[in-house]
What does this fold into?
Amino acid sequence: MKRILQILVPVLFSQMVMAESIYDFKVKTADQKEISLADYKNKTLLIVNVASKCGFTSQYEGLEALYKKYKDKNFVVLGFPSNQFMGQEPGTDAEIQKFCKLTYGVEFPVFAKVDVKGDQAIPLYKWLVKQKVSDGSISWNFNKFLVNSKGEVLKHYGSRVKPAEIDAEVAKLVEAK
It folds into this structure.
Protein backbone atom coordinates (compact mmCIF):
# COMPACT_ATOMS: atom_id res chain seq x y z
CA MET A 1 0.00 0.00 0.00
CA LYS A 2 2.82 2.39 0.88
CA ARG A 3 4.42 1.84 -2.54
CA ILE A 4 1.12 2.54 -4.31
CA LEU A 5 0.75 5.80 -2.40
CA GLN A 6 4.34 6.77 -3.24
CA ILE A 7 3.45 6.41 -6.90
CA LEU A 8 -0.08 7.85 -6.92
CA VAL A 9 0.30 10.89 -4.66
CA PRO A 10 2.94 12.63 -6.80
CA VAL A 11 0.95 11.92 -9.97
CA LEU A 12 -2.28 13.32 -8.53
CA PHE A 13 -0.49 16.27 -6.95
CA SER A 14 1.30 17.13 -10.20
CA GLN A 15 -2.00 17.09 -12.10
CA MET A 16 -3.52 19.50 -9.61
CA VAL A 17 -0.55 21.86 -9.40
CA MET A 18 0.49 21.86 -13.04
CA ALA A 19 -2.98 22.15 -14.52
CA GLU A 20 -3.24 25.38 -16.43
CA SER A 21 -6.57 24.69 -18.02
CA ILE A 22 -9.76 22.83 -17.30
CA TYR A 23 -8.85 20.67 -20.28
CA ASP A 24 -5.88 19.23 -18.36
CA PHE A 25 -8.16 17.19 -16.10
CA LYS A 26 -9.47 13.66 -16.37
CA VAL A 27 -12.62 12.48 -14.64
CA LYS A 28 -14.46 9.19 -14.29
CA THR A 29 -17.77 8.43 -15.90
CA ALA A 30 -20.44 6.63 -13.88
CA ASP A 31 -19.19 3.33 -15.32
CA GLN A 32 -15.64 4.17 -14.12
CA LYS A 33 -14.14 4.98 -17.51
CA GLU A 34 -11.65 7.80 -17.42
CA ILE A 35 -12.24 10.64 -19.87
CA SER A 36 -10.47 13.90 -20.48
CA LEU A 37 -12.24 17.21 -20.14
CA ALA A 38 -10.39 18.07 -23.35
CA ASP A 39 -13.29 16.18 -24.95
CA TYR A 40 -15.32 19.31 -24.16
CA LYS A 41 -13.00 21.84 -25.81
CA ASN A 42 -14.79 24.68 -27.58
CA LYS A 43 -17.95 24.10 -25.54
CA THR A 44 -19.50 26.28 -22.87
CA LEU A 45 -19.73 24.25 -19.66
CA LEU A 46 -21.76 24.41 -16.49
CA ILE A 47 -20.09 22.18 -13.90
CA VAL A 48 -22.35 21.29 -10.97
CA ASN A 49 -21.97 19.14 -7.86
CA VAL A 50 -25.28 17.34 -7.55
CA ALA A 51 -27.21 15.21 -5.05
CA SER A 52 -30.47 13.28 -5.22
CA LYS A 53 -31.77 13.83 -1.67
CA CYS A 54 -31.21 17.56 -1.24
CA GLY A 55 -33.53 20.53 -0.96
CA PHE A 56 -32.02 21.73 -4.25
CA THR A 57 -32.45 18.42 -6.11
CA SER A 58 -35.29 19.88 -8.16
CA GLN A 59 -32.62 21.98 -9.89
CA TYR A 60 -31.97 18.89 -12.03
CA GLU A 61 -35.08 19.96 -13.95
CA GLY A 62 -33.66 23.42 -14.65
CA LEU A 63 -30.22 22.06 -15.49
CA GLU A 64 -31.76 19.65 -18.01
CA ALA A 65 -33.85 22.50 -19.49
CA LEU A 66 -30.68 24.61 -19.98
CA TYR A 67 -28.88 21.65 -21.49
CA LYS A 68 -31.68 20.91 -23.95
CA LYS A 69 -32.06 24.56 -24.89
CA TYR A 70 -28.39 25.12 -25.73
CA LYS A 71 -26.84 21.71 -26.40
CA ASP A 72 -26.97 22.30 -30.16
CA LYS A 73 -24.95 25.48 -29.56
CA ASN A 74 -22.03 23.65 -27.94
CA PHE A 75 -23.23 23.89 -24.35
CA VAL A 76 -23.11 21.04 -21.86
CA VAL A 77 -23.89 20.57 -18.19
CA LEU A 78 -21.49 18.27 -16.33
CA GLY A 79 -22.90 16.79 -13.13
CA PHE A 80 -20.67 15.49 -10.35
CA PRO A 81 -22.57 13.66 -7.60
CA SER A 82 -21.18 14.12 -4.11
CA ASN A 83 -22.21 12.71 -0.75
CA GLN A 84 -20.29 15.27 1.31
CA PHE A 85 -23.21 17.38 2.45
CA MET A 86 -25.23 15.55 5.12
CA GLY A 87 -25.14 12.30 3.14
CA GLN A 88 -27.56 13.61 0.53
CA GLU A 89 -26.14 11.43 -2.28
CA PRO A 90 -25.99 7.97 -0.70
CA GLY A 91 -26.62 5.91 -3.84
CA THR A 92 -24.23 3.98 -6.01
CA ASP A 93 -23.25 5.39 -9.39
CA ALA A 94 -25.80 3.11 -11.05
CA GLU A 95 -28.55 4.20 -8.66
CA ILE A 96 -27.70 7.86 -9.26
CA GLN A 97 -27.89 7.39 -13.02
CA LYS A 98 -31.24 5.65 -12.74
CA PHE A 99 -32.62 8.36 -10.44
CA CYS A 100 -31.50 11.17 -12.76
CA LYS A 101 -33.00 9.57 -15.86
CA LEU A 102 -36.26 8.34 -14.36
CA THR A 103 -37.03 11.29 -12.11
CA TYR A 104 -35.78 14.24 -14.18
CA GLY A 105 -35.11 12.83 -17.66
CA VAL A 106 -31.48 13.91 -17.39
CA GLU A 107 -29.53 13.51 -20.60
CA PHE A 108 -26.48 15.62 -19.72
CA PRO A 109 -23.44 13.71 -18.41
CA VAL A 110 -23.58 12.76 -14.74
CA PHE A 111 -20.20 11.38 -13.71
CA ALA A 112 -19.02 9.05 -10.95
CA LYS A 113 -19.64 10.14 -7.37
CA VAL A 114 -16.73 12.24 -6.07
CA ASP A 115 -15.57 14.46 -3.25
CA VAL A 116 -15.73 18.14 -4.14
CA LYS A 117 -14.18 19.65 -1.01
CA GLY A 118 -11.43 18.85 1.44
CA ASP A 119 -8.27 16.82 1.07
CA GLN A 120 -10.03 14.06 -0.87
CA ALA A 121 -11.61 16.40 -3.44
CA ILE A 122 -10.88 15.42 -7.01
CA PRO A 123 -8.21 17.58 -8.67
CA LEU A 124 -10.79 19.29 -10.90
CA TYR A 125 -12.65 20.69 -7.91
CA LYS A 126 -9.45 21.66 -6.10
CA TRP A 127 -8.57 23.66 -9.21
CA LEU A 128 -12.06 25.16 -9.67
CA VAL A 129 -12.17 26.65 -6.17
CA LYS A 130 -8.77 28.25 -6.73
CA GLN A 131 -10.00 30.24 -9.73
CA LYS A 132 -10.37 33.97 -9.16
CA VAL A 133 -14.18 33.89 -9.53
CA SER A 134 -14.57 31.43 -6.65
CA ASP A 135 -14.72 32.24 -2.95
CA GLY A 136 -12.52 29.18 -2.44
CA SER A 137 -15.13 26.74 -1.26
CA ILE A 138 -18.04 24.54 -2.22
CA SER A 139 -20.70 25.52 0.27
CA TRP A 140 -23.32 22.86 -0.50
CA ASN A 141 -24.82 20.71 -3.24
CA PHE A 142 -25.61 22.38 -6.56
CA ASN A 143 -22.75 24.88 -6.64
CA LYS A 144 -22.19 25.79 -10.29
CA PHE A 145 -19.16 26.88 -12.28
CA LEU A 146 -19.70 28.53 -15.66
CA VAL A 147 -16.84 27.94 -18.11
CA ASN A 148 -16.59 29.61 -21.51
CA SER A 149 -15.60 27.84 -24.74
CA LYS A 150 -11.95 28.81 -24.17
CA GLY A 151 -11.91 26.89 -20.89
CA GLU A 152 -11.95 29.98 -18.67
CA VAL A 153 -13.96 29.79 -15.46
CA LEU A 154 -16.17 32.88 -15.55
CA LYS A 155 -18.47 32.54 -12.55
CA HIS A 156 -19.10 30.46 -9.45
CA TYR A 157 -22.74 30.35 -8.39
CA GLY A 158 -23.97 29.10 -5.05
CA SER A 159 -26.70 26.54 -4.51
CA ARG A 160 -29.51 29.07 -4.26
CA VAL A 161 -28.91 30.34 -7.80
CA LYS A 162 -31.38 28.48 -9.98
CA PRO A 163 -30.42 27.33 -13.48
CA ALA A 164 -33.03 29.68 -15.00
CA GLU A 165 -31.14 32.61 -13.44
CA ILE A 166 -28.04 31.59 -15.42
CA ASP A 167 -29.88 31.29 -18.74
CA ALA A 168 -29.12 34.84 -19.96
CA GLU A 169 -25.41 34.41 -19.23
CA VAL A 170 -25.30 31.06 -21.04
CA ALA A 171 -27.17 32.58 -23.99
CA LYS A 172 -24.58 35.36 -24.31
CA LEU A 173 -21.74 32.86 -24.29
CA VAL A 174 -23.18 30.45 -26.82
CA GLU A 175 -24.35 33.23 -29.16
CA ALA A 176 -20.95 34.98 -29.04
CA LYS A 177 -19.31 32.30 -31.19
In short: Helices lie at 2-18, 59-70, 93-104, 123-128, 163-175. DSSP finds five helices and six strands in the chain. The mean pLDDT is 92.
